[in-house]
Amino acid sequence: MVPEHLSPLDLAFWRIESADHPMHLGALAVFEAAAQDSGPRARPGSGRPAGPGSGKDPEPDAAARAAALLTTRCTRVPGLRRRIHDVLLPVGAAAWAPDADFDPARHVFLVRTPDPWAAAGPLMARPLDRDRPPWEAHVLAGPDPSSFAVLFKFHHALADGLAALALAAALFDEGPPVRGPVRPHTGPPAPVPALRDLPGLLATRIQGVGQALEIGAAMARSGLPLPVPAALTAGAGGTGTRAVAGLALALDDVNRIRKVVGGTVNDVLITLVAGGLRRWLADRGDAVPEGPGPRALIPVSRRRPGADARYGNRLSGYLLRLPIEEADPLRRLERVRTGMDRNKEAGPARGAGAVALLADHVHPLGHRLGGPLVAQAARLLFDILVTSVPLPGFTFTLGGSRVREVYPLAPLACGHALAVAVSTYKDTVHYGLVADAAAVPDLAALAGALEEELDALVREVA
Predict the structure, then answer these.
(1) What are phi and psi of 388, to 5 degrees?
(2) Are 11 and 157 in contact (CB under 8 A)?
(3) Lowest mean pLDDT among 88-92, 237-241, 261-265
(4) ∠ CA(436), CA(441), CA(446), 5° rounding?
């Protein structure tokens, strides 16, 4: 059987992981219990996941049923039953293989907790078991019997945001199809190229080297990293601790701003991060930079609509200076629009943000030996991750319980204190914030600052 090797980018994500900087992405899905589990309802839009308590609740309650369903359904998803293992050739490579000892109980967990949000932070800090299929689902049941939450964790080597969505959707109740990742048949090994094929192969290789040089030159032109607020750094490597927070905002407000000012919804969402950071720094008494702001890495999907859908990663990225030094909210938005327009004009295959594409030009042994060094160099490449994960418009359910909110959670790079992910579900924008818990003890205050920035922009366009 021909081994199915990890792609260069998937392998890079697998190799740069460390105990203090696990490379899994996540999502905290908040569910409203089905009618038969009705009780006091949580305040709509509170963003605080909770679930059935132990006490006098009948068993199995909604959270327990959800855990049982996930345990059963995960056995039917082939992509969730495979693990990563090293191979002899090529040296340094890794491949997928079925997990002969797959046990759902090692991947699906029911957690009774007084505060699901507080529990999610330590769970995000814990690396996935690298000897098992690299994913987990934690059903978080809190004291409120009206709802529960599920924290999904997928290693970045297994999936990017879109592929993770398709994997998670396979575990929910049947609904409209999500275009899922389907692995292509690997087939027999590629034939040895004939002499007549060599010119074409050489041209392709030269083109790839040219692209790598172009990206490298763009990185050099971006200059050395400038000082950023201490709140965005986590010392030499961080503490390995994690805190998470979520914020739900009305999509109508975001669209109102976009329609008046122009640009895209994503421009507004990025501007909220820039303005929120400025307000947060000022409120905590930190100096707001007067010069260029922090460099945000904004991942860009390279998947073609309706095609090229598979597990793993098809990513590039844009690099954007967040104008946190700009005091005027509308001018901040205009500067984000200008920067993003410039990035889009250049395209996702060039520019300093396309660093992920360099993985294609590294031998597997280079990933194995250089992975730790690359991880340590993240601070040299960017200062904060700001990523967006699009969600379909229909309603997800699990055992009849409806998904009310979805907060995406991004991995935290070495030396970074904060990562921001955002998704739009139904008529609500959900920000998921992940931070080094020791470096950012006031993460909830940042969520509040993002909301203040939205209010300020709404007032400006009224």
Answers:
(1) -125, 135
(2) yes
(3) 237-241
(4) 90
Place of tokens 């969402």: 269
- Output the six-digit token pair for 414: 């070495």
Dist. CA 114–CA 192, nearest whole Å: 61
Backbone angles phi, psi at 293, to 5 degrees: -80, 180
Look at the block and give the residue holding tokens 């104008």: 323
Q: 40 has which bridge partners?
A: none
Angle at 113 between CA 110 and CA 117, to 5 degrees: 100
Give the C-alpha separation, 187 to 93, whole Å: 19
Q: Are the CB atoms for 288 and 325 separated by under 8 Å?
A: yes
Structure-token pair, residue 102: 């797959």
Strand order through the sheet with 384-388:
243-250, 428-435, 418-425, 384-388, 295-301, 315-321
User: Shortest CA distance to 159 belongs to which of 18, 21, 307, 26?
Assistant: 26
Name 462's Cβ contacts closer than 8 Å, sequence gap at least 6: none
Cα separation, 159 vs 137, in Å, equals 15
CA-CA-CA-CA torsion sign (26, 126, 138, 418): negative
How far is the C-alpha of 300 from the C-alpha of 316, rounded, in Å? 5
Q: What is the pTM of this model?
A: 0.86
Q: How far is CA 411 from CA 27, 137, 389, 416, in A?
A: 11, 16, 14, 10
Task: Please give, one letter per residue, the 3-state secondary structure of 194-243.
Answer: CHHHHHHHHHHHHHHHHHHHHHHHHHHHCCCCCCCCHHHEECECCCCCCE
* Residue 170: strand, helix, or coil: coil
Name residue 385's beta-bridge partners: 297, 419
The predicted-structure confidence for 349-386, as pLDDT tens digits, reads as follows 766 666 677 777 788 888 888 887 777 777 888 899 99
The angle subtended at Cα 33 by Cα 32 and Cα 36, nearest 5°, is 145
* 361 half-sphere exposure, CB direction, 13 A CA radius: 18
Cβ burial 245-284 (10 Å sphere, 16+ → b, else e): bbbbbebebbebbbeebebebbbbbbbbbbbbbbbbbeee
Question: Hey, how many other C-beta atoms are within 10 angstroms of the C-beta on 305?
Answer: 8
